[in-house]
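To: structure desk
From: M.T.
Subject: fold request, one chain
Message: Could you run this one when you get a chance? Sequence is below, nothing fancy, just the single chain.
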Amino acid sequence: MVNETTGEGLKSVIGVPGLALAIINGIIGAGIFALPAIAGIQLGAFAIFGYIFCSVMMAAIMLCYAEIGSKVTTSGGSYAYVQTAFGNLAGYIINWLYFFGWNVLGSAAVINIIADSLAILFPVFLDPLLRGLFFFAMIGFMILVNVLGAKQSISVVKLITIIKLLPLLAIIIFGFSQVKTANLHWEHLPPLKTFSNTALMLFFAFAGFETTLGVSGEFKNPKRTVPLGICLGGVVVLIVYILLQTVTQGVLGASMATVKDAPLAAVAEKIVGPIGATILLFTAAISCFGCVFSDIMSTPRALFAGANDGLFPKFLSKVHTKYATPYLSVITYGALIFIFSVSGGFKQLAVLASAAILLVYLAVILATVKLRKQQQPSAEKTFKAPGGLIFPVIGIAAIIWLLTSLSKWEILSTIIFIAIVGVMYFITKQFKKDKAVTIPASE
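Reply: Done. Structure tokens follow.
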């Protein structure tokens, strides 16, 4: 079967299963391996309701992404959605918040988590030089596969997702036999503040689904692929999260506090012995690898789309003549992750991350509401979230609540970052105007 080539020069090769697995891969990262203990220590058996509460908030955001993603089918994901609805300035700010404030810094941190996990078994990974070489080889491999094509990239994502899910599913299946029902009872409801603080952490455990939507220009039949892929991926993640929390809480109970850094490894050890903890350690490393791989597959498309719109340097819009991929965007983005991962600079800038992704979500929800008002040709049947404005309002309320929970430094650093990006936008725009005037005058 010949793959359709889009107007951007890319190939439409990603269907519903590929998108759903990529979303699962993007959400289930390093956090889930410690999350059951964080939630269990704070909320006890009531933690399951924390997941349900957060899933409702995230479902509202996902449905907005599903709706707008079925309408806007160019590359760029969140950037493309916001730029289409609100224009270049809004798109430019969201692109910087998304690709730098959230993804570059996040992937640099996750790359270091991989090395830290392996260093528990192989202390040699604590050596800065070997660590740097390891990062270079790992990121170089990710860049190479992603340059070769979206089809190859999504195949790797599918494989990694299956590999990371198998041990987690094994814990769920074999762990149920060791669950003690007494560990699943709660005597009283947790304080509202405790529930709110824990829900904030759980909410970010559901973040990451939007990364894969960066390849929105390479979806087969996006009007069907986007809503089905998002919904399927989100449901699977929710089920896995709740079952893992139930099993971990049921097996460990009050002893969870003594293994708070690796509760799933502790459950695996109870099931199959010491080898179980080792398997979970490697699973955590593979899970982190999959998240960064997805990021290098998807986020460069936002740079590519921004370059096509004249907002980023033109060279980022180059498409490989043989592989039909935005290869210079992929290489540039991978290089940025490498630089920050070896320099440790992401630690000082990571304060931007939480506010950045919340503002991206907020902008996409508002873009969904705006585009919903536009008349579409009757032949253009696209997905529309049910319930009118119910889900957008839930999403907006959830984001505003989460924003109020951020520290003053997170808020201040984000405001400064947006101000700097805004100045960059107007300087770039003025430079292009001056260049456009100068060139004809010299001829």
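Reply (cont.): The two ends are 49 Å apart (CA to CA). Let me know if you need anything else for the meeting.
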